[in-house]
Structures are given as C-alpha cells and as structure tokens.
Amino acid sequence: MRGAFAKTLTELAGNDSRIYLLTGDLGYMALEPFAEKFPDRFINVGVAEQNMVGIATGLAEAGFIPVVYSIVTFATLRPYEFIRNGPILHQLPVRIAGVGGGAEYGHNGATHYGLEDIGVMRVQPGITVVAPADAAQTATALKKTYDLPGPVYYRLGKDDRIVVPGLNGAFDLGRAQIIREGKDLLLIAMGGISCEVAAAAELLRKDGIDCEVMVVASINPAPVDDLKAHLSKFRQAITVEAHYAAGGLCSLVSEVVAQSGINCKITRCAIEKSPDGETGGQAFLYNKFGISAGAVAARAKALLCGVMV
Amino acid sequence: MINNLQLNTYVPIAQATGAGRNQMTGLTLRRSIIEQSKRAGVGHIGSALCVADIIACLYGKVIEAQSPRDPERDRFVLSKGHAALALYAAFAQRGWITQAQLNTYCGDGSQLGVHPEHCLPGVDFATGSLGQGLSFGVGAALAAKRQNSKRRTFVLLSDAECNEGSVWEAIMFASHHKLNNLFAIIDLNGQQAFGYTKDVLNLTPMDARWQAFGWDVHCVDGHDADAMAVLIQSLSGKGDQPHVLVAHTTFGKGVSFMEHQIKWHYSPLNDLEYKQALAELEVQ
To answer: Least enclosed by CB within 10 Å: which of A277, B135, B243, B261?
Structure first.
C-alpha cells in the first residue's frame, strides 16, 4: 500500500504544486519516486516527528498540502498532541501517512507495531481517518481525499502485493464496501487484514457457511448507513482488525449497533493483550493474536454452533 | 456575551486602548493587562507584564499589516500562550479588536481566553501547550521561503519552554534550512511556574546554546522596545541563519510587588493590589 500511496501522491503532485512530502527519516525504498521527481517538495526533517507535524501545520496555514510520513506509531502517538493542537484544532490540510498498521513490522518487535492508532485518531472528530485494505483502494482513497480542507490520517500497509478479492479499488468516504454477499454471517474487516477475512470466508464456504464480507476503510466519517443496512440483515457479525480491541473497528461497529438498536450480536477478532515480547513474522503474529484466516474461520464455526472458543 | 461577565468590584476607567499603533508602548499595554486581569479575576499577570515591551515592539513598530487577515502579513506565534492578555491589549490598541471585545476577556462565550485561540483574527496559531510554537513558526518561515515572500515569522518563547525537547528539534531544523526570515525571541525572565529556572532546570548559558545550534544570537534588553525594533529591522533579510533575540526581562515588570515573584505566575489581584498596581503604572 505504501508503494501505491507514494506513486499516487507523485502523480497528484504533478498537477498540484501545493503538495509537499515530509518524512521523519523513513520511507527508504518507498518514497524515492516522489523525492526524485520533486526534490524541492520533499523534505527529510530528520528523526523528529513532533517538529515534522508542527512544520506541516505552518506550511498548511500558508496554503500548502503537506504529507507527513512515518511508521504508524511514530506518525501518530509520538506527535499526537501536535496533531491535536495543530492541524485538527486549526482545521488545516495536513496529511498523516502511517505505514505498517497492526503487526506488519513483526520481527522488529513491539515498539514498531501500530496497535492503537485508529482508536486515538478516531476519537478526534476533526480528522478524516482512512484505513485502506489494499494497494488499489489506497490509490482511490488518496485521490478522493488528498485535497479535503481538513486533516486526514491514512493507515497504510507495507505490502503492495496483496489484493482483496472483489474490492476492485472501490472507496468512498462514509461508505463501506461489500466484497462478498452471503446469508449466514457478516464478517467486517478493516485495513490490510481484509485479505485474511476474505480467505476465512472461502474456508467457511467449504464448510457450508455462507458469509457476507464488508470492508470498512472510511473510519471517520464512519459508514453508519451501510453498517446499519447490513447489520440488520444478520443475527451475528464478527469484526476483524489488526488493532487493539478498544477503540478500533469493533468499537465503531458496536457503537452503531447500540445506537440504532439493531438486534445483531458482535463478536470481535482483535488484539486483546499487550505484546509479550515474543516476536515473529506477520502470519505468526496473526495466528498468535487470533486474527488469521484460520482463526477467524474457527471463531465463526464455533459461534454458529453456539460454542465459545 | 459581554453580559455574562463577572464585573466584581471593577469600575471601568479611561484607558489607553484604541490609542493606535504609534502610541503603543509597554506601559499602555500594562495598564490594559492590570485592568482586564482584575475585571476577569484571572492570573498569569506577571508573564503578560513581562512581555509587554516585546509585544509593543512587534505590534507597535515591526509588524506592518493593515489587517490580521492579510495573507502577506508577517506571522507571529505567541508560543508562551499564557501571556495572551498582552497580545489582546495590543490587538485592541492596533484596532484589530474593539474595546468591547477586549472586555470579554475570560468571559463565557468569548474568543479571548487565557491562551490564544485561532478563531480570533490576528492569532495565527493557537498556543498554550508549551514547546509547539517554534515548530509552527518554522513551517510558516519555510512556507514564506518557498513562496518567495518577504514576510517574516516571529516566535515568542519563554525561557522555561526550552525545557521541551521539541523546541530543540525546531531549532536544529531552522538553522539547517537557513531560515533567515525567522526570528525567535526568548523571554529570559529566569522564572517558571514552580520556581526559578536556575533551580528547576538550569538553562544557562541560553545564548551559547542557541549559538551552538547555528543561530544568529543577540542578547538584548527585553524592555527596550525601540532598540529591539531597530535590531529586528536591521537583521531582516540578512545572513543565512535564523535570528534569536535573547531578551533579558523582569517577570512582573512595572509593578513593584510582582517583580521576580513566583506567586504572580498564577495569582489574581485583590482590590488593594489592583489599586496599588494601577497607581504605580500611572506615575511611570
């Protein structure tokens, strides 16, 4: 997704001289297309994320569209108060691009995981929050949001190769995408893990369970109407996210269910505990956290048979 | 919204607001500061008095903009946002806000809070969380460079604000990128909320620290508005370094019982103190 993001941003910057790209010394082997084409509009601010967001605020006040780039946790948590008091409070078009949502930086360990970014960003009403599911959706989402008047946060995956079947690059703010229709169970996914959820639906089909799969990439504004329409067709739904259980997709969906009075029970597949220091690749960690395709399928089967796992 | 204000025992008196840019001095601002802080019953008086001459220098002698909405105006960031009352007093004397607006200071529904809010025209950046303003100012100065504009950016920081690590991130960036259109002014009063800076976290030598980070450093009397204005004008557009005025100041300047006193970081005025403060300013 980060490759698609850099490529699309470079295309957009060719037609819009307001676009600047700032990085906190990250994006090696990803941001070069932009840096080479627009060297005057590419600034490596050094390892200083707070200052990066502050500078972007000053640039945006003068009419620029600065994109700040780093790994999810360094792009959101380290400069969080700068984001709050800068672009959000002033309603300026700063774009925050965080790469590696969830546990994509697996072997790098817990300091590099992005486990609560959606939660902390989503609580701020004044920022658009987007979590694309694959490269094609990243490109569409960036094109449709890059010139919004207020700030935007993008949670990007590292992997440009994954393709979520049935998504076809669709994205609209405030909407969700249905990538598979079904009648037995609704699976709702956020971000790069949507691919695992599509695979889970395929596993369940072999067991005779017919799942509908929804991708939520527009987190703020939330796809409230789409969620209501589809949740009300099912008695059971499972949310799947590479994010802590609190504040992310499950919280968002549960808020909609609670506020609308829809009779649908929500089960969550999310990261329930703080990292314990045991590292590994993303697939290993997805299994460990219970959010892999196999784990989601097992959860679904248990749920539909009325057995807790 | 003015109706909501608590007037306490304050009786409005004729004051210097509305006098215009040319008549603005630290003294005219200090009278406003004392009157408004008493009327509103709020503190941060010593900090506002301390920077009155710096604000009078900038808004009376340096910043030319006719309108706070002029896109080519010099930018100003009051990074030590808790001194906002001095800024509001300058806006009133400049004619950017009315006396009636100034009288809403710290009232319900007012745009004039203890710390400056962006909704008030003239406040380029909302502040109050220390350590953020210099980064905003660096971005503003960088933007001016990239837009080939001659506009300058001024950032007023407190000395204790330099405790914040983010300030030093901004200091490094500004010198590396040769932002000679950026002026930082350090209000070097040697005090912070809980004590004296030499006891809390020693900042000495302030000038050598900034110099070591690549800035063009000038130690000045922070109460000599004329000299600071002359210096700023002479440095504008010069050299290839950002400029910093290390302004030696007296906390609570102009009111004898407030000067150098930690108490007046937060304490509001009682009736007796208010009368004494105004009386002292009357004879200056």
So the answer is: A277
